[in-house]
């Protein structure tokens, strides 16, 4: 069974904007899935619905039989990375990565192994005591990825995470993200409007069309990498 399935999902904002209509898609265990399409075709909305950050107006979303936002597991089952790293400026790198575990009631000391493991994954263990203002854009994004991974989520959702970075930093992060994905054996859904990025990173691509947003085409890039 897929990790996650959306069936006939629609999302309207007011009665003007139909962001999504009749969206059918599934996310398979272990895949690196990209959602590709022009601005405004509903990719971010689809990601937010999957994350449980918003409710669909119609259709259903099944996540291992339950809604991701309501999954009763010791760790939040979904990690989310936004385009903006949204770090707390008053907290160190360590403190920022601690946050999701802190909210779950885990102390700094208890959380330290998980935090350091997440920082190692993104190559920032030496920067644990640095503050966000001391970091480059690429490094801030790495902290944001570590923060999303520290709870060991079943699913990592990324909404145009590298769109604001320069080309070289972006390419480095593409490669490092692939390493993280292989190392953790995790499932990633990655929103982008870059054809290059989607082809370079993914095992499978869903191409979205706009007005209303839905999947127009599917490309299997490397099905051998899908673990079912
Ligand atoms: P994409 O991520 O592909 O750029 P979005 O999912 O952000 O597309 O947006 C899809 C459509 O829904 C757009 O027309 C956008 O303006 C609209 N939209 C997204 N969020 C909201 C919102 N909170 N309120 C009203 N309209 C929205
Ligand atoms: P990225 O490609 O991750 O954005 P940069 O290209 O900006 O990183 O930085 C290149 C290297 O410079 C980094 O890998 C890091 O080792 C070092 N560096 C960047 N910012 C700092 C800092 N505030 N203090 C020390 N070293 C830094």
Automatic annotation (TrEMBL):
<dbReference type="InterPro" id="IPR050166">
    <property type="entry name" value="ABC_transporter_ATP-bind"/>
</dbReference>
<dbReference type="InterPro" id="IPR003593">
    <property type="entry name" value="AAA+_ATPase"/>
</dbReference>
<dbReference type="InterPro" id="IPR017871">
    <property type="entry name" value="ABC_transporter-like_CS"/>
</dbReference>
<protein>
    <submittedName>
        <fullName>ABC transporter ATP-binding protein</fullName>
    </submittedName>
</protein>
<keyword id="KW-0813">Transport</keyword>
<keyword id="KW-0067">ATP-binding</keyword>
<feature type="domain" description="ABC transporter">
    <location>
        <begin position="4"/>
        <end position="228"/>
    </location>
</feature>
<dbReference type="Pfam" id="PF00005">
    <property type="entry name" value="ABC_tran"/>
</dbReference>
<comment type="similarity">
    <text>Belongs to the ABC transporter superfamily.</text>
</comment>
<dbReference type="InterPro" id="IPR003439">
    <property type="entry name" value="ABC_transporter-like_ATP-bd"/>
</dbReference>
<dbReference type="GO" id="GO:0005524">
    <property type="term" value="F:ATP binding"/>
</dbReference>
<dbReference type="InterPro" id="IPR027417">
    <property type="entry name" value="P-loop_NTPase"/>
</dbReference>
<keyword id="KW-0547">Nucleotide-binding</keyword>
């Amino acid at each position: 069974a897929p990790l996650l399935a959306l069936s006939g999902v629609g999302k309207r904002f007011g009665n003007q904007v139909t962001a999504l209509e009749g969206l059918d898609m599934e996310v398979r265990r272990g895949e690196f899935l990209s959602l590709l399409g022009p601005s405004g075709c509903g990719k971010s909305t689809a990601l937010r619905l999957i994350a449980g950050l918003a409710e669909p107006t119609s259709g259903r979303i099944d996540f291992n039989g339950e809604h991701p936002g309501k999954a009763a597991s010791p760790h939040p089952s979904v990690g989310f990375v936004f385009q903006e790293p949204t770090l707390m400026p008053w907290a160190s790198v360590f403190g920022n990565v601690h946050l999701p575990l802190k909210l779950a009631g885990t102390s700094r000391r208890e959380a330290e192994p998980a935090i350091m493991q997440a920082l190692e994954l993104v190559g920032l263990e030496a920067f644990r005591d640095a503050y966000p203002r001391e970091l480059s854009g690429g490094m801030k994004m790495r902290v944001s990825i570590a923060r999303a991974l520290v709870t060991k989520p079943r699913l990592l959702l990324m909404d145009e995470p590298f769109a604001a970075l320069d080309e070289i930093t972006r390419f480095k992060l593409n490669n490092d993200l692939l390493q993280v994905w292989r190392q953790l054996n995790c499932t990633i859904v990655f929103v982008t409007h870059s054809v290059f990025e989607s082809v370079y990173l993914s095992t499978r691509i869903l191409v979205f069309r706009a007005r209303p947003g839905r999947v127009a085409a599917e490309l299997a890039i490397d099905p051998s990498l899908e673990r079912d």
